[in-house]
């Protein structure tokens, strides 16, 4: 199956000029719901991983230290412009979510929206999120997931061959991914398309 960091960089470079037109309105409420689950406190250090063009920024409090990463330079360029437009002090970097360059236990909150279903190895991405979170830190996830107690059937797995090449994996399950990475799930809420998209808040044990 064609799902590599190199391919993701190519296709999201192509998608970048159209991304806001497609994703902004459709995911505005799910982003707000997901980020509304986080227990925000002034001065928190926050990492937005695979943040695309920065569409999460309007729903994040201002009194925070925000770092934003994405695999694709074209996306980071647009995210930087959005941060300036909203007058947000955001540090933006091109970075692979599966190989973050931040030190251990550096962040209070990690946000991964519409990412776990896209990255080649979500287990590695979650391992990196776990590593850079401090004990007790929060992980905010919003994405499309196969129901946890219902493995994907043959038709979904066949469709996934196409969807993974063009956009996203449709067979991944949220709870197994998060718990196997060591996270404790605190909240899980359906946010779009009859529960296909879910917002989850998890924590790294103290």
TrEMBL record:
Which Gene Ontology BP annotations are present?
methylation
List the CDD domains hit by this protein, alphabetically.
AdoMet_MTases (cd02440)
Q: Name the InterPro entries for this protein.
A: Methyltransf_11, SAM-dependent_MTases_sf
Whether Transferase counts among this entry's keywords is yes
Q: Which SUPFAM superfamilies match?
A: S-adenosyl-L-methionine-dependent methyltransferases
Which of UniProt's keywords are assigned here?
Answer: Methyltransferase, Transferase
Transferase listed as a keyword: yes
In this chain the Methyltransferase type domain maps to 48-140
Q: Which residues form the signal peptide?
A: none
Which GO molecular function entries does the Swiss-Prot or TrEMBL record give? S-adenosylmethionine-dependent methyltransferase activity
**Protein name per the record:** Methyltransferase domain-containing protein
Q: Which source organism?
A: Vreelandella subterranea
């Amino acid at each position: 199956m064609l799902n590599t960091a190199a391919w993701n960089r190519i296709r999201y470079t192509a998608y970048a000029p159209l991304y806001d037109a497609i994703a902004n309105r459709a995911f505005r409420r799910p982003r707000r719901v997901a980020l509304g689950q986080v227990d925000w406190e002034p001065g928190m250090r926050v990492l937005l991983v695979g943040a695309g063009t920065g569409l999460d920024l309007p729903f994040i409090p201002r009194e925070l230290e925000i770092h934003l990463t994405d695999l694709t330079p074209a996306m980071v360029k647009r995210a930087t412009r959005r941060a300036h437009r909203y007058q947000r002090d955001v540090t933006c970097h091109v970075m692979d979510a599966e190989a973050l360059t931040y030190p251990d236990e550096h962040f209070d909150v990690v946000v991964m929206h519409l990412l776990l279903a896209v990255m080649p190895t979500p287990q590695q991405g979650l391992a990196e999120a776990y590593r850079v979170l401090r004990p007790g830190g929060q992980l905010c996830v919003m994405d499309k997931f196969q129901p946890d107690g219902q493995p994907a059937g043959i038709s979904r797995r066949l469709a996934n061959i196409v969807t993974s090449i063009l956009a996203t994996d449709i067979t991944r399950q949220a709870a197994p991914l998060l718990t196997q990475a060591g996270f404790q799930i605190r909240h899980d809420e359906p946010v779009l398309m009859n529960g296909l998209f879910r917002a989850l808040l998890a924590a790294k044990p103290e």
